[in-house]
Amino acid sequence: MQYVRLGRSGLKVSKICLGTMTFGREADEEMSFRLMDRFMELGGNFLDTADQYSMGGSEEIVGRWIKKRGVRDQIVLATKVYTDMGPGPNDGGLSRIHILKGVEDSLRRLQTDVIDLYQIHRWDTNAPPEETAETLNDLVRQGKVRYIGCSNLKGWHLAKFLQLSKENGWSRFISIQPIYNALNRSIENEILPLAAEEGLGVICYNPLAGGMLTGKYRRGQDLPEGARLEALDVYYQRYYTDQALDIVERFVQAAQDRGVTPAQLALAWVLAEPRVTCPIVGARNLAQLEDTLGGLNINLTPEERAQVPAIPAGRWVGQDPVYDRVY
Hints:
Largest sheet: 8 strands, parallel
Oligomer: single chain
CATH topology of the domain at 3-177: TIM Barrel
């Protein structure tokens, strides 16, 4: 496993981040422990979770694993805040009151006294960015958070936060976590150039496009029961289109021609983008994890990457009710 600096910070993380969205949902606690154990055996040190995942259940599983294994000092621990975690009017979003409560709840669930990377999960139209940025800065100063980052922001959102940090001398984001894969290249338009210019790490998620690029979803066939696109409508809208299915058919064939699995080619394609710091890989079992991580052994040249079937640069195949809504 290789290690890379996250943006211009001094923080070093493994070239792959283990995503834990499946924990407490597709993967029970025993399997989640096995996935984290194997990831560490392979040299991985970067875990990403969120309060939203299994409504706190993912954080709790990660926290119990860290405590049981005694590996807190060996792990770079990332989580996120935004989602409504209760019925009250202040139980979600990026207001000062919710962030301060959210970080305490995450610390408790994760059984730690500090979060290495605390990320806002998306833009909040109801909270002034000044309030959000100042609150995050306070958490760093208080020692509850070591670094801050963001996820699912548009280019102007990110620019706004970076400017606020500069003007006020506040802690700035060291990373952004966006969607990126061969079916969704939207971040090539603004996010990747801005991140490169400002020195932000790019921790991209969905490198397998919710499983679309593995070839498990076939034209004219029912969606596999319990699979991501069948279980979550947001993923269905994000990826399941005729255009995507056309690309996937050619993508799977390209993987076969190279003698690798589609999942490995999907990860290798993302890794071959030089502005990407580390993709997030999720899994519901060990076989999936081992398969996908095989992509680390594939080094695509720019010319080879350009030959891999993908959506044209800067384009994406579907719609996302969360990410693509107009702000």
